[in-house]
Amino acid sequence: EDQVTQSPEALRLQEGESSSLNCSYTVSGLRGLFWYRQDPGKGPEFLFTLYSAGEEKEKERLKATLTKKESFLHITAPKPEDSATYLCAVGTGANSKLTFGKGITLSVRP
Amino acid sequence: KAGVTQTPRYLIKTRGQQVTLSCSPISGHRSVSWYQQTPGQGLQFLFEYFSETQRNKGNFPGRFSGRQFSNSRSEMNVSTLELGDSALYLCASSPAGSGGTDTQYFGPGTRLTVL
């Protein structure tokens, strides 16, 4: 059974204090790893898709990386508006089922 | 391009009732997936529809069902509601439903409260 574990569960940062969010996975045949951001009461907002180990993608203050066992979401010089829950999900096999981690709640203080 | 839309946004029902939720995917997207999100279990896959056919189903009881129409719009139905069905129900669409490589785009969700 596919498993996705995110750590830490919650993270509090000072504005400008860079950090990384971890997503480790155990799957049979990774086809895609997805990062989403979710604000309270809203649906997940797509951030990145990674397909193979060594791949990296960047968007503004966020950078996602992928190895054979885990993915990291690096946040550089975060701002209070980056406060949200960050979700990691994996897609495997031929079906469209995504298996999600429990998420990491990030709080950035001004 | 308009995003995924879901209606209604909020619902309050009582135990034993049934409910129907609606989802309109992004224009041109043919695959629609449904997820249940609760504080304890997180996001869990319910089922996926592609070209009006259910292609995959998660580990939920038969009270949860769905369908997809020829215009790719989808509905899900929950019969005989239980207190534990209270959750945020999310719909996601993807262009071709190409399995695990396809990026899914989520709607705002329907918040269901069962009393």
Q: Structural class, judged by helices and strands of chain A? A: mainly beta
Calculate the terminal CA-CA distance of chain A, rounded to whole Å.
Answer: 41 Å
Rg value of chain A: 13 Å
* Helix percent band of chain A: under 10%
Average pLDDT of chain A, rounded to a whole number, is 95
What is the mean predicted local confidence, pLDDT of chain B? Answer: 94
Overall 3D form of chain A: globular
Helix content of chain B: under 10%
Question: Quick one: which chains have the greatest interface?
Answer: A-B, 30 and 30 residues
What sequence of helices (H) and strands (E) makes up the elements of chain B?
EEEEEEEEEEE
| Distinct helical segment count of chain A | 0
What is the oligomeric state here? heterodimer
Description:
The complex is a heterodimer of chains A (110) and B (115). Chain A has 110 residues and is an all-beta fold. In chain A, strands 2, 4, 5, 9, 10 and 11 form a 6-stranded mixed β-sheet that branches. A 5-stranded antiparallel β-sheet of chain A has the order 1-3-8-7-6, with no helix packed on it. In chain A, a hairpin with a 6-residue loop joins strand 4 and strand 5. Chain B contains no helices and 11 strands. The model of chain B has no long low-confidence stretch (mean pLDDT 94). The interface between A and B is medium-sized, with 30 and 30 residues.
Name the descriptors.
heterodimer; A: 110 residues; mainly beta; six-stranded mixed sheet; five-stranded antiparallel sheet; 0% helix; B: 115 residues; seven-stranded mixed sheet; four-stranded antiparallel sheet; 11 strands; 52% strand; globular
